[in-house]
Specification:
The structure is a single chain. By secondary structure, the protein is an alpha/beta fold. Helices cover about 40% and strands about 15% of the residues. It has two domains: about 10-135, Rossmann fold (3-Layer(aba) Sandwich); about 140-409, no CATH class. It has helices at about 10-20, 35-45, 60-65, 70-75, 95-105, 115-120, 170-175, 180, 185-205, 215-225, 235-240, 245-255, 285-290, 300-325, 370-375; strands spanning about 25-30, 50-55, 85, 110-115, 135, 260-265, 280-285, 330-335, 340-345, 350-355, 385-390, 395-400, 400-405. It has an eight-stranded mixed β-sheet, with helices on both faces.
Length: about 400
């Protein structure tokens, strides 16, 4: 049975429970509202001596901002070594020094969460390397939604851990997979996604001391969401938003640092052709991306942006699985100056797997010239290529190319 207050199992549940059982400490990073607090509360429910510092609570945050040593004094007053849960730790970066003291002196086990690596870096905080284990929590993966029917690619194999609760793949493409959105009624999803974008603007951007630029950032955010999954043209974005190119680059850094986008760099290993060298950015959740782009949050959006949404969904799933499986794989894309392209390159170190993504049921060899070109250019390390489709069956369309339905990834 799942926990009374826990709607869905997460892949991280066992790992965090294991950390607690081993009496170790950890830091969980992830964007806002991906379920970090819910996950930790679920894993801590059997612990008897838990002290919580929810820094999203203004009173708690102000107390620790004015007196960071309050954390140490509170813990030292306990007779039994507690588990300390500090939620949204980036709001008071000074707590990391106190956390280090408590861990080094074996006075407590700590679980910290955070949603902005930027604020921690700007404050000069080290994230307790060697003292805590680091984890990353994403929105719900397909296996956490119960959408997987088969794992064809062994190196990305992951199982369903929840039964499908009637949340369809089409809904995933429109509304994304933030836990709060998935478990909400259909009537609530639009307003919740709209409010997410407003909260992000208000809290994160004002926290970055960009209040004077919030109008410019808001215009940029809509354009960046529309271009999600591409290599942004800074010059065109500058003209369309009325913001300078240096400011555009800084805004992308903010999105990256506040975990709102996934950056995918180009594959440059032993390049024979002239390769595009700029990064691509994928918004971390499709629903948030659609809301920020001011697209209609309804199924009609799939027809208008089917290829973009499907590619986005598959790339995000691959990135999330690599993290969930604790694999040290690199995720890249490949595009030559001549226009040959492969949507996703998975570099495992020992081999390279090119993956093309097509939002169609049937794919012919004439539609995947980029994949064929890559397999030819990198035949020493890339033996097999795959095409992820919206079809129903797997099909071998060449000796070294297989098409796979998305639910068999």
């Amino acid at each position: 049975m799942q926990g009374k207050n826990k709607a869905l199992f997460r892949y991280l549940d066992k790992e965090i429970a294991g950390i607690i059982k081993k009496k170790q400490s950890c830091l969980i990073l992830g964007p806002r509202q991906v379920g970090k607090t819910t996950l930790v509360d679920f894993c801590l429910q059997k612990e008897k001596n838990v002290i919580k510092f929810p820094l999203q609570n203004p009173g708690v945050r102000i107390s620790l901002e004015s007196d960071p040593e309050l954390l140490i004094r509170t813990i030292e007053a306990e007779k039994i070594k507690p588990v300390v849960f500090i939620d949204e730790a980036q709001k008071v970066p000074e707590v990391f020094d106190a956390a280090q003291y408590l861990i080094d002196n074996k006075k407590a086990r700590l679980i910290l969460t955070g949603s902005s690596a930027r604020k921690l870096r700007k404050a000069g905080v080290n994230l307790l390397p060697g003292r805590v284990k680091h984890f990353y929590l994403d929105p719900l993966l397909w296996g956490e939604l119960g959408l997987i029917k088969e794992n064809y690619l062994d190196f990305l194999k992951i199982k369903n851990i929840n039964k499908n609760k009637s949340y369809s793949f089409e809904e995933f493409l429109v509304y994304g997979s933030l836990p709060q959105i998935v478990t909400a009624s259909k009537g609530e999803r639009k307003s919740l996604l709209r409010s997410y974008s407003e909260i992000y603007l208000e809290e994160e951007i004002r926290a970055e001391a960009l209040s004077r630029k919030i109008g410019a950032f808001s215009r940029f955010l809509e354009l960046a969401a529309l271009e999600s999954g591409t290599s942004p043209n800074f010059s065109r974005l500058s003209q369309q938003s009325g913001v300078s190119q240096p400011a555009i680059k800084e805004f992308y850094n903010i999105l990256d640092d506040t975990l709102v986008v996934e950056r995918v760099d180009p594959f440059l290993r032993n390049a024979r052709n002239r390769i595009m060298s700029s990064s691509r950015y994928y918004f971390f959740d499709l629903g948030v991306r659609n809301a920020l782009a001011r697209l209609p949050l309804e199924k009609g959006t799939i027809n208008a942006q089917k290829g973009i949404l499907f590619e986005h969904a598959v790339v995000l799933e691959i990135i999330r699985r690599v993290k969930a499986l604790n694999k040290n794989y690199k995720i890249n894309y490949w595009r030559t100056r001549a226009g040959a392209e492969v949507d996703c390159i998975i570099d495992t170190g020992s081999k390279v797997i090119p993956i093309e993504i097509k939002a169609s049921k049937n794919v012919s060899l004439s539609k995947i010239k980029g994949l064929k070109s890559f397999l030819s250019d990198y035949k020493n390390v890339a033996k097999q290529g795959y095409v992820i489709t919206m079809g129903e069956r797997k099909e071998k369309i060449a000796d070294n190319i297989t098409t796979i339905p998305w639910f068999c990834l």
